[in-house]
Amino acid sequence: MKIFYYCYGSAHSSVVAASIHLGMLPADRLPSAEEFKNLPHYDKTDSYEIGKPFFMGIDEYGAEIFITGMTGERQLVKKAIYSFLKNCGVDVTDLMMVNALKSVNLKTKIGGFMSRRMGLVMIGRPLTIKGIQEKYTEFVKLVENTKRGERNRLNKT
pLDDT tens digits for 131-144? Predict the structure, then answer.
């Protein structure tokens, strides 16, 4: 199984969701700013990398976890990913696409724009972290729901 957490630019919400999924971030407490900063890809993806899947790791069920940014072209990018994997012989019924952007608040969006688009990392990055901390329980719920869906799919096979 392959699970893709996606967001706008693969720099914040998808990184956080995938990191919770893989146990790089705790599900039982609010992480510190340093824990976010130490994540691979957190607030580091450049605009030319949007659309590129980044492998984050393998979960406890053997699923490969990826992140990707889709800008405002979610349907187009999803279609491209499904088509590419299908043409490579991957069973796309074992593919889950999870929208991590729906767990983000305005503070994170503004911080992400400032950091990634405007280059104001010193202002934008702390803003993204603060926004994600405010919505962290929603990220944990998103991952719990994803894992539940993953287990349900595995139990059917």
Answer: 999 999 999 999 99
For 15-70, the pLDDT digits (tens) are 999 999 999 999 999 999 999 999 999 999 888 888 889 999 999 999 999 999 98
CA distance 58 to 18: 10
Owner of token pair 């146990």: 23
Q: What pLDDT digit, counting tens, does each position of 90-123 carry?
A: 888 888 999 999 889 999 999 999 999 898 999 9
